[in-house]
Amino acid sequence: MARSKRRPEDLRSHRWLGAKDLRSFGHRSRALQMGYSRADFAGKPVIGIINTWSEINQCHAHFKLRAEEIKRGVWQAGGFPLELPAISLSEPFQKPSTMLYRNLLAMETEELLRSYPVDGAVLMGGCDKTTPALIMGATSMGLPFIFMPAGPMLRGNWHGEPLGSGTDSWKYWAELRAGNIDEKAWEEVEEGIARSFGHCMVMGTASTMTSVAETLGLTLPGAASIPAADANHARMASASGRRIVEMVWEDLRPPGLLTREAFDNAVMVTQALSGSTNAVIHLIAMAGRAGVALGLDRFDEIASKTPVLANVRPAGKYLMEDFYYAGGLLALLAELREGLNLECRTVNGRTLGENIAGAKIYDADVIRTRDKALAIAGGLAVLRGNLAPDGAVIKPTAAEARLQKHTGPAVVFSDYNDMARRIDDESLAVDENSVLVLQNAGPLGGPGMPEWGQLPIPKKLLKRGVRDMVRISDARMSGTSYGTCVLHVAPESFVGGPLALVRDGDLIELDVAARRLELKVSEEKLARRRTEWRQRSTPYARGYGALYARHVTQANMGCDFDFLHDGPPTPDPEIH
Ligand code: FES
């Protein structure tokens, strides 16, 4: 790739390391203090490697090694790599929800890149929220960057059966509660379900968002599907290091790649993967940072013309390792070709169309061709009605067909603790036609919009063989989950959305085909309930939680902070 006309003195880092003044004397002497020689940094692009490694992030356990591989690539290409650790959002461990901290990582990424002498960045992420957070922050900063996805972990295994992260935990937990498996079997599942480093290997939020990042043109072609433990993954890491140095010289800034057309491609791929519902929130937030107005309805418009091609759990049968061997995301993109904007540019300097040229499907059961699609349309659907005036989402491909048009009486839980206390109570007035409703689980009510949207089926119904019911909440759902779960109801109940006014026994109508979610209660009755409704108080009086509570937007706006997508650009720091 030919270099642009950029010279070393045009680099942003030159102001720190190249200038002839007292301040840069200080910066150079401190770089020398760390053992670097002048030859290591003089006139070279400084590449910030934003590493979300942590001892409590199982999905990024290989990131120490991968950071070294990225550095090797940066050195090879004539750059100066500097690893900059950032908060690691570990999906299972961080409470109340990693979603509470997505915007914190985004802010940290943006400010790390701004406040240090960085010319370009490699973003290391993969575990659920880390991908959107890193991309949001780097997009706002506006420097050249490349995303290095963590890669999915290897297939799980139990008694010769492949196990999928999350998805099979829900499945076997239900079987344990129903008395169909014993504690020993449950322990064996626990030992076999997560066999290597890497992110969840179903089409959960992690695989969806890394695929989204690749579709947006922010990774090297093919990067998102490579299993974390595959040697190809290590080579992709060092190739990312080499490429970012070139991108700095070319001044190829991914914010310029993030066009409306690129986001349409990402929405289409999310649908074709039957990807995580969380992608809706993250894509809206990411688009907002790029100055692209992406609304919920665009997801529905694109869903209507997008076949579901990935036969991967939870909507399908296979796992990400199989998806990779079947040709990976490039093969799926090639099959989707006619619906995509192929002219969108990507970090390797080529167009999406050029990158997918020649990609093939090697297993047509895992990656379906259009004529054998899992569903002809609609990996995700957007619902509206008097219960969700600002929208709600459902993943029809993960829901039982018979429940997609259903009217039933509500069984209401006022919050998660109320639900946990009563859901298995034998005296709970519930049957398979009931509609389970969870309130106060949204962006503010959760707080942090936890993944509680797959409400458990009451034990007494599990024992009768019931495995799916209509469930409605303002929460999110793990991308590894399944069921007829209506999620992200907006506005949320905590701020007085209609979900707050539902009472036990109210009839609720769900009609996925008609995109309708209706509370069958008269306006007069609802108005009366509205006057009786009292807002709960936020648990946060101080600190980051208070900042979050003051500024987070609703699900249909992407849950970004209002002050992060509004306002003029932040100036680069003065160097005094
Ligand atoms: Fe990290 Fe699922 S726990 S991606």
Outline the fold blueprint.
Layout: H1 14-17, H2 22-33, H3 38-41, E1 46-51, H4 63-76, E2 80-85, H5 99-115, E3 120-125, H6 130-141, E4 145-149, E5 156-158, E6 161-163, H7 167-177, H8 183-192, H9 205-215, H10 231-250, H11 260-272, H12 278-289, H13 296-303, H14 320-325, H15 328-336, H16 352-356, E7 381-385, E8 388-394, E9 405-413, H17 416-422, E10 435-438, H18 459-462, E11 470-473, E12 485-486, E13 507-511, E14 516-519, H19 523-532, H20 543-551, H21 562-565
Parallel strand pairs: 1-2, 1-3, 3-4, 9-10, 10-11, 11-12
Antiparallel strand pairs: 5-6, 7-8, 9-13, 13-14
Bound molecules: FE2/S2 (inorganic) cluster.
Characterize the structure shown.
By secondary structure, the chain is of the alpha/beta class. The protein is 35% helix and 12% strand. Strands 12-11-10-9-13-14 form a six-stranded mixed sheet. Helix 18 (459-462) links the parallel strand 10 (435-438) and strand 11. The longest helix has 20 residues, at 231-250. It is globular, with a radius of gyration of 24 Å. The structure holds FE2/S2 (inorganic) cluster (FES). FE2/S2 (inorganic) cluster binds at residues 59, 91-92, 127-128, 165, 199-200, 204, 206.
Query: What structural class do the secondary elements suggest?
Result: alpha/beta
Strand order of the largest sheet: 12-11-10-9-13-14
Strand content: 5-15%
Number of strands: 14
Mind describing the biggest β-sheet? 6 strands, mixed
Helix residue percentage: 25-40%
The radius of gyration computed from the alpha-carbon positions, rounded to a whole number of angstroms, is 24 Å
Q: Could you say which small molecules are bound to this protein?
A: FE2/S2 (inorganic) cluster
With helices defined by DSSP (H or I, 4 residues minimum), what is the helix count? Answer: 21
Mean pLDDT across all residues, rounded?
Answer: 95
> What separation lies between the terminal Cα atoms?
36 Å
The general outline is globular
Uncertain spans:
none
